[in-house]
Design a protein that fits this description.
The chain is an alpha+beta fold and 302 residues long. It is built from 8 helices and 9 strands. One of its GO terms (biological process) is protoporphyrinogen IX biosynthetic process.
Length: 302
Amino acid sequence: MESFILDMQHRICSILSGLDGNEFSYDKWEREEGGYGITRVLQGGKIFEKSCVNVSVIEGSIKMQSFAKRKELKLEEGVDYKFKVSGLSIAIHPNNPFAPSSHANYRYFELFKSDCSEDSEPVLYWFGGGADLNPAYVIDEDANFFHSVHKRVCDKYDHRYYPAFKKWCDEYFFLPNRGEHRGVGGIFFDDLDNKPAEELFEFVKDAAKAYLFAYIPILSKRVNTPYSKKNKEWQLVRRSRSVEFNLCFDRGTRFGITTSVRTESILSSLPLNCIFQYNYKTEPGSLESMSLEILRFPRDWV
C-alpha cells in the first residue's frame, strides 16, 4: 500500500501540474511516534486555486475509545494496542465556479498488540476510502459521468459495492445542521475487511485509478466556462460548507489531529478561499437555488 500510494501521488501531481502549468510544493515530514508523510500542494495556479495530494504512513499507540470498530472487537483486558496506517488524500479546488471541486482518499489500517513481534499478524485490518464530487453548480451530465465510472469499478469486484457505497457517501458527507450534502456524492466505504486483503487491495487500487478517469474529463470540460461575479460568490459560499464539514464532522480530520499528525498537512485539503456570509439566501428559480435543491435531496445518478 505504501508503494502504491507513493506512485499515485507522483502520477496525480504530474497530471495536475501539466494541466495548470505550475508545480506542486514538496514537503516531507516525520512523526515522532513513528512514520512520515509527504504533503504536496499547488495553490494560486492558473486552473487550481488550491490542490493537495498527500501521503501519510504512520504508526503508534491508539486510544480504543476513539476507535470506529471497538464494539466489534474482543479486546483483552490490560492489553495495549498500536496501529499502522497508510493513506493517500486528494482535494482539488479549481478557480472556475463551474468546475467542481473533488475529494478522494484511500487508506489501509492494521491493529496490533503493542507487545507483538515484527512478523506478527495484525489483530485486524481494513481498507477505507472513496471519492466524491463537490460542484457549486450541479450539472447532471457531470454527476452522471462521475458516478458511472465509479459504478463500473465497483461492479467489477462486487455488484453490492456501488449501491452500498453510494448510499454511505450520501449519508457521510452531510451537514446535519443545514440539511445539506457537501456535493453530489460518489462512493465511500470504511472498515472494509469482508474479503482477503489481497483481493480488497486490488479493488482499492482500481478505485483510486478510476478517480482520475472520473474527474479529469469533467475538469477539462469546465475550466474555461465564462462566469460572473455572482457565480464566484456562490462558489465561495459552497466552499464554506466544505470547510464546515471538514472541521465539524469529518472523522478523518479528527483522527489526524488527535493522533498528532502534522496539522498543516491535515488542513491542507481546505480551499484557499471561502466566505461565511451571514444568512445567505438564494433567489428562487436561480441556478444557485436549483443546485441547492439537489444538494438537499440526493439523486440516483446511474
